[in-house]
Design brief:
This protein has about 350 residues and is an alpha+beta fold. It folds into 3 domains: about 5-95, Gcn5-related N-acetyltransferase (GNAT) (Aminopeptidase, 3-Layer(aba) Sandwich); about 125-250, Gcn5-related N-acetyltransferase (GNAT) (Aminopeptidase); about 265-335, SCP2 sterol-binding domain (Nonspecific Lipid-transfer Protein, Chain A, 2-Layer Sandwich), CATH 3.30.1050. The protein has helices at about 5-10, 15-25, 80-95, 105-110, 145-165, 170-185, 220-230, 265-270, 320-330, and strands at about 30-40, 40-55, 60-70, 100, 115-125, 135-140, 165-170, 190-195, 195-205, 210-220, 235-240, 250-260, 280-285, 295-300, 305-310, 320, 335. Strands 1, 2, 3, 4, 5, 7, 12 and 17 form an 8-stranded mixed sheet that branches. A 5-stranded mixed sheet has the order 6-8-9-10-11, with helices on both faces. Strands 15-14-13-16 form a 4-stranded mixed sheet. The longest helix has 18 residues, at about 145-165. It is globular.
Length: about 350
């Protein structure tokens, strides 16, 4: 058994064999995997999933941290800290300005200066009681024609471009991976057509009698209600993980899900745009990446954001990368859509 799979089975026993087979085929060959061995036995690992992220009109490569796993007998010995530091340094050397992850426990990552940037608006809808519902032309990604896929990709990327400041770039390979992932979890990816025009996109999976909609992009409320009508009576519970495009009655709540770690303050800030004008001068101390240490001036603007190192003059507030991230995130007003599971 491969080292990553051995550790995954030990640390994430809830994942099915179907899911691990999907991960083996679609993910592991693309990932950068950091593994620690002791006496030939894998004891700890961290993986980086490659993605491309749209940041305020620019598409940049970024790494999504997953598979952070340590054998129970080797925990609390600094192995995860060493992996995080090593991965951060290697990514910075490649010119990457940030890393991101979805924490199982935020308290684990706060000391390493990861901070929340994306809070999902989640929704548990009240399923409709009416019996009649009309189905448009529903198409599963895996069976769509090349022309349909091209139309679907154009539609969803234009929707995200018009409505989001930060989002994951979506191409055919992205949806091939997502379809395989949803299939491994009892779900699928489908696009809803009205004649030759796309009006909705949905990715879903089934777990413990709960149908979870990972993506729910709708042209209007009618499409959304049609989907719920189709699901009526089939599942005990339906939950939508990103419900900003969905209307109707139900229980709404927010959940912070994506944490970001700044790797290069100057490069990261330069890619941003802010809803308001703000500026700050400070001293930065970064224990993980001491090359970031120094005094900075950061300016957030609607047209351009900038950061530069300056010569110290007088006493300045001292920030960590996490402090800087919180200050920035609280002021940007970013519209974000990063819904990846792995």
């Amino acid at each position: 058994m491969s080292a990553w799979r051995e550790l995954w089975n030990i640390c994430f026993p809830e994942d099915s064999e179907e899911y691990l087979e999907y991960y083996q085929e679609y993910k592991i060959s693309k990932n950068e995997v950091f593994t620690t061995y002791r006496e030939g036995v894998p004891v700890s690992m961290l993986q980086l999933n490659p993605y491309r992220i749209h940041l305020y009109g620019k598409e940049v490569p970024a790494s999504y941290i997953v598979g952070v796993a340590t054998r129970p007998e080797a925990r609390h010995q600094g192995l995860m800290r060493d992996h995080l530091r090593h991965a951060a340094r290697k990514e910075r050397e490649k010119g990457r300005t940030f890393q991101y992850l979805m924490p199982a426990d935020p308290a684990i990552y706060l000391p390493f200066d990861y901070r929340f940037w994306y809070t999902q608006e989640r929704f548990e809808p009240h399923l409709p009681v009416e019996e009649d519902w009309f189905v448009d032309d529903w198409n599963f990604w895996s069976t769509m024609t090349d022309i349909q896929k091209l139309i679907a990709l154009s539609w969803v990327n234009f929707l995200l471009y018009q409505n989001m400041d930060v989002y994951t770039a979506r191409d055919a390979a992205y949806y091939d991976d997502l379809t395989a992932e949803c299939n491994a979890c009892g779900g699928d990816v489908m696009f809803v057509f009205r004649k030759e025009r796309v009006i909705g996109a949905f990715a879903y999976f089934l777990e413990d009698e709960t149908l979870t909609l990972l993506d729910a992009f709708c042209e209007d409320e009618t499409v959304y209600r049609q989907l719920l009508g189709a699901l009526k009576g089939k599942y005990q519970k339906v939950e939508i993980l990103d419900a900003r495009w969905c209307a109707g009655e139900g229980e709404r709540y927010e959940k912070p899900i994506i944490m970001v770690r700044i790797l290069d303050p100057i490069g990261f800030v330069s890619m941003l745009r802010s809803k308001t004008e703000n500026a700050m001068t400070f001293a930065l101390i970064d224990p993980f990446l001491p090359e970031n240490d120094g005094c900075y001036e950061v300016v957030l603007g609607k047209e351009q954001c900038s950061a530069r190192k300056i010569e110290a003059s007088g006493e300045l507030p001292v920030l960590s990368p996490g402090d800087l991230a919180e200050w920035i995130f609280q002021r940007l007003g970013s519209r974000i859509c990063i819904n990846e599971i792995v």
